[in-house]
Design goal:
The protein has about 130 residues and is mostly beta strands. It has one helix spanning about 120, and strands at about 25-30, 35, 40-45, 45-55, 60-70, 75-80, 85-90, 95-105, 110-115. It has a single domain (about 25-120), classed as Jelly Rolls. The protein contains 1 helix and 9 strands. The relative contact order is 0.37.
Length: about 130
């Protein structure tokens, strides 16, 4: 079964502005500039991925983030593909054990997984056209 991933949410640079996410709980955090498969993390829905991509060549970076099942490492979906520096938030509506497979070319990344309340999740709105 494929994980349902909502498109980019809360436009770049907005981050958590305007969201009273008192119930946020950090679950996992990953930073670097290399290709890797992360350690397994367990998360309860709803949850968000707060991501930031930077680089010396802001229009020439390459970054791909795949979601894997934490136990089997089976592919669950593409979370993000970009060739530009930027940041944003993605909302997920499935609990479970997961890993990320990261492919990074000329890109520095920071990924933070946080559980949020159902109330906070309702405040996220997908970006139009994205």
């Amino acid at each position: 079964m494929k994980l349902r991933v909502l498109r980019s949410i809360l436009v770049v640079a907005v981050g958590f502005a305007g969201i009273n996410a008192q119930g946020q709980q950090a679950v996992a955090e990953f930073s670097g500039n290399n290709n890797l498969t992360t350690t397994e993390f367990e998360v309860k829905a709803p949850w968000i991925l707060n991501w930031r991509i930077t680089g010396n060549y802001t229009t020439s970076v390459g970054f791909e983030l795949m979601l894997l099942d934490g136990k089997t490492r089976m592919h669950k979906g593409v979370v993000l593909r970009t060739r530009r520096a930027g940041n944003g938030v993605k909302l997920f509506q499935e609990s479970g054990s997961f890993r990320f497979r990261i492919s990074s070319g000329l890109a520095n990344y920071h990924l933070k997984v946080e559980e949020i309340s159902e109330e906070d999740a309702k405040q996220y709105t997908p970006r139009k056209g994205g």
